[in-house]
Specification:
Length: about 650
C-alpha cells in the first residue's frame, strides 16, 4: 500500500515544480522584455507600449498558472477520494475475508466432529448388525443419507460463495490497477474531462463491487441458517441413535416389535382368507337371487331386458295405505254412531252423508279393480324387494371385493418393501466389501496401520450365509479378482496422470527459467540505465545557470520525469523477479513431490502386482483341487 500511495505524489509533484519555475521565470521576463520582444520598423520606438504587452503576456501566464493550479487541486482531491475509498474497501474486504475464514474454519471443525460421530455410530451400528443380522433400521438410515446429502449441498454452496468472493477480490484488484493506470496517465493528460470520466467509471465499479459484497454476505447468512437447521436435524438424529445404543430402545425391543409385526401379518392373512370366503358366499347368494329374479320375470311375463318402473310401485303403495286408512276411519265412524244411538241422540245426517261420501267403501266393481291392482302391486312389490335385496347384495359384494383389492395391494406393498430391504442388504454387503477393499488398498500407502477384524468377520458371515439362503463359496474369490483388476487399472491411470503432470511441470519449469533469463537481461539493462541516470541527477544537483533558455529547462524536467518512471519500473521489475523466484521454488517443490509420488506409485504397483500374481497362483491351485474333487465325485457317481 505504501507504493500505491507514493505513486500519485510522485506524479503530482512535477506540477509544483513547474509552478515554481514559472514564478522564477516571471521576474526575468519583466526585466528582459525589451531585449526579447522585437521592435517593429514601422512603429517608432517612443510609441511602443511595452508595459502593456508585458502585462498581457503576464496575465496570460497567470491564467495558465491558475488553470494548472485548479487542475492540480481537482486531481489531488480526486486521487485522495479514490485512495480513501480504496483503503476503506480493502479494510472491509479484509474484515469480510477474515470473518469468512473464521466461519469456514468453524464449519470445517463442526463437520469433522459430525463425521467422527457418524463414523463412531456406524461402527456401533455394524456391531449391532453383527449381533442381529435380521434387524434393519430403514428410517434412520434414510434420514442419515438425506442429512449427508444436505450437508454436501451446503459444502457446495460454501465453495460457490468462496469462488464468488475470489471473483470479487479479483474485480477489486482490477479496480486498483485502473486507479494506478489513471495516476500514471494523469501526468500526460492535459484536460480534466478524461480524468473525471475515469473517476466516475471507477466509482461505478466500486459501487458494483460493494453491491456484490452485500449480496455475498446475504447469501452467506442464508447458507449459515440452512447449515444450522441441518445441524439441528443431525443432532436430533444422533440423539435418537444414541438412545438406541444406550439401551432405551435396544435389541430386545426391536426383536419384540418384529415378532408383533409378524403376528399382525398372520392376522391380516387370516382376515383376508375369511373375507375371500365371505365374498364367495355373497357371490353365491347374489347368483341365487338373480336366478329367482329371472324366474319371477318369467312367471310375470317380463323380459330380462325391460326395466321395471319404480314410480308405479310407489303410487300403488300410497294407494294401499290410503285404503287401509279409509277402512279404519269407517270403522271408527260406525262405532261413534252406535254410541250416539245408545245415548238417545241422532247423528247429523248432513255430516254423515258428507262423511259417507268422503269415507265410503268402494263399490263391488271397484273392489274387483282394486283386487287386480293389489295382485299387480304385490307381484311388483315382491320383485322390487328381490331387486332391492339383490342390489344390496351386489353393493356388499363390491365392498368385499374392494377390501380384498386393498388387502392385495397391501400385500404387494409389503412384498415390494421386503424386496427393497433385501436389495438394500445386498447393497450394504457389497458396500462393506468395497470399504474393506479400499481400507486394504490404502493400508500399504500410508504409515498408519488399519485393522478391521470385526468388519472382516461380519463379511465372512454374510458371504457364508447369503440373504436369499443360497451358499456361494466362490463368490468371494471372484470379487477379490475383480477388485484386484480394478486396482491395477486405477494404478495404471494414476501412473499415466502422474506422467502427464510431470511433463507439464517440466515444461512450466523450462518456461520459468527462460523468463528468468529474460528478466535478468532486462535487469542488467535497467542497472546500466540507472548508472547513467545517477550522473544526470548529479548534474542536476549542480544547479541551473541564471540565463538558461526555456527549452533546456523543459528538457531537464522531462529527464527528471523519465528518471522517476525508470526508478518505478525498476522497483516493479524487482518485485516481479522476487515473485518469479518464489514461483520457481514452488514449481521445484511440486516437481519433487510429483517425482516422489511417482516413485511411491511404481513401488505400490510392483507390490500389488506381486500380491496379485501370488493370489492368482493360489486361485489356480484351488481350481485344480476343485477339478480333482469334481473328477473323483464323477468317478464315484459312475461307480454307483
Amino acid at each position: 500500500m505504501a507504493t500505491q500511495r507514493g505513486i500519485p505524489w510522485l506524479e503530482i509533484h512535477p506540477f509544483g515544480n513547474k509552478r515554481s519555475e514559472i514564478r522564477s521565470r516571471r521576474g526575468p521576463l519583466r526585466q528582459d522584455g525589451d531585449r526579447r520582444l522585437p521592435r517593429s520598423p514601422l512603429v517608432p520606438s517612443g510609441q511602443m507600449d511595452y508595459p502593456r504587452v508585458l502585462k498581457g503576456a503576464m496575465y496570460l501566464e497567470l491564467d495558465k498558472l491558475n488553470t494548472l493550479e485548479e487542475q492540480n487541486f481537482a486531481l489531488r482531491t480526486q486521487v485522495k477520494e479514490l485512495v480513501d475509498q480504496k483503503l476503506d474497501r480493502d479494510s472491509r474486504l479484509d474484515h469480510f475475508s477474515e470473518a469468512l475464514d473464521t466461519r469456514v474454519q468453524e464449519w470445517k471443525r463442526v463437520m469433522e466432529e459430525k463425521d467422527a460421530e457418524i463414523e463412531e455410530l456406524q461402527s456401533r451400528l455394524f456391531l449391532l448388525a453383527a449381533q442381529a443380522p435380521n434387524i434393519q433400521i430403514d428410517t434412520e438410515r434414510s434420514r442419515v443419507a438425506l442429512l449427508t446429502q444436505t450437508l454436501q449441498k451446503q459444502e457446495d454452496q460454501i465453495e460457490d460463495l468462496q469462488n464468488k468472493l475470489a471473483q470479487a477480490t479479483k474485480e477489486l484488484n482490477e479496480g486498483a490497477a485502473i486507479i494506478e493506470q489513471l495516476g500514471s496517465r494523469r501526468s500526460k493528460l492535459k484536460s480534466s474531462d478524461i480524468d473525471a470520466a475515469a473517476a466516475s467509471q471507477l466509482k461505478a465499479v466500486l459501487q458494483q463491487t460493494e453491491e456484490r459484497v452485500r449480496l455475498l454476505e446475504g447469501k452467506l447468512k442464508d447458507s449459515e441458517e440452512d447449515a444450522q437447521a441441518k445441524a439441528l436435524e443431525m443432532t436430533e438424529m444422533i440423539v435418537k441413535l444414541r438412545e438406541y445404543e444406550s439401551g432405551e430402545y435396544g435389541l430386545m425391543e426391536a426383536v419384540d416389535e418384529i415378532k408383533q409385526l409378524r403376528k399382525q401379518r398372520q392376522l391380516r392373512d387370516r382376515q383376508i382368507e375369511e373375507l375371500i370366503q365371505s365374498s364367495n358366499k355373497l357371490q353365491e347368494e347374489a347368483t341365487s337371487l338373480e336366478e329367482q329374479n329371472m324366474a319371477l320375470r318369467e312367471k310375470l311375463g317380463i323380459s330380462a331386458e325391460t326395466p321395471i318402473k319404480v314410480d308405479g310401485i310407489l303410487a300403488q303403495r300410497k294407494k294401499e295405505q290410503l285404503l287401509v286408512k279409509n277402512r279404519r276411519l269407517c270403522k271408527r265412524l260406525s262405532r261413534l254412531c252406535e254410541q250416539l244411538k245408545s245415548l238417545g241422540q241422532s247423528p247429523d245426517v248432513s255430516t254423515l252423508d258428507e262423511q259417507d261420501s268422503v269415507l265410503a267403501l268402494p263399490a263391488p266393481q271397484d273392489r274387483e279393480l282394486v283386487r287386480a291392482d293389489m295382485q299387480l302391486v304385490i307381484s311388483e312389490a315382491v320383485s322390487s324387494s328381490a331387486i332391492g335385496r339383490l342390489t344390496s347384495m351386489e353393493a356388499e359384494v363390491k365392498r368385499v371385493e374392494e377390501e380384498r383389492d386393498s388387502l392385495k395391494q397391501g400385500m404387494v406393498y409389503i412384498e415390494e418393501k421386503l424386496l427393497a430391504v433385501t436389495k438394500e442388504n445386498e447393497a450394504l454387503r457389497t458396500g462393506m466389501h468395497e470399504i474393506l477393499d479400499s481400507v486394504r488398498s490404502q493400508d500399504g500407502s500410508s504409515d498408519v496401520r488399519l485393522e478391521s477384524q470385526c468388519l472382516e468377520r461380519l463379511l465372512e458371515a454374510l458371504d457364508s450365509r447369503h440373504i436369499s439362503g443360497w451358499y456361494h463359496p466362490a463368490m468371494r474369490l471372484q470379487a477379490q479378482v475383480q477388485t484386484l483388476e480394478g486396482n491395477n487399472t486405477a494404478l495404471r491411470d494414476q501412473l499415466r496422470a502422474t506422467r502427464l503432470e510431470e511433463n507439464k511441470s517440466r515444461e512450466q519449469a523450462q518456461k520459468a527459467l527462460l523468463k528468468i533469463e529474460h528478466l535478468e537481461q532486462k535487469l542488467a539493462s535497467l542497472e546500466e540505465s540507472k548508472h547513467s541516470s545517477v550522473g544526470v541527477t548529479a548534474y542536476r544537483e549542480m544547479g541551473l545557470p541564471p540565463n538558461l533558455s526555456l527549452s533546456s529547462a523543459e528538457v531537464i524536467a522531462n529527464l527528471n520525469m523519465h528518471l522517476l518512471r525508470v526508478l518505478n519500473e525498476y522497483h516493479t521489475e524487482e518485485e516481479r523477479n522476487r515473485k518469479l523466484e518464489s514461483r520457481l521454488e514452488e514449481l521445484n517443490e511440486k516437481f519433487n513431490i510429483v517425482r516422489h509420488q511417482t516413485g511411491l506409485l511404481y513401488r505400490h504397483h510392483g507390490e500389488e502386482k506381486i500380491t496379485w500374481e501370488s493370489k492368482q497362483r493360489e486361485f489356480e491351485t484351488e481350481k485344480n483341487v476343485l477339478k480333482d474333487n469334481v473328477a473323483r465325485l464323477e468317478a464315484k457317481v459312475k461307480q454307483y
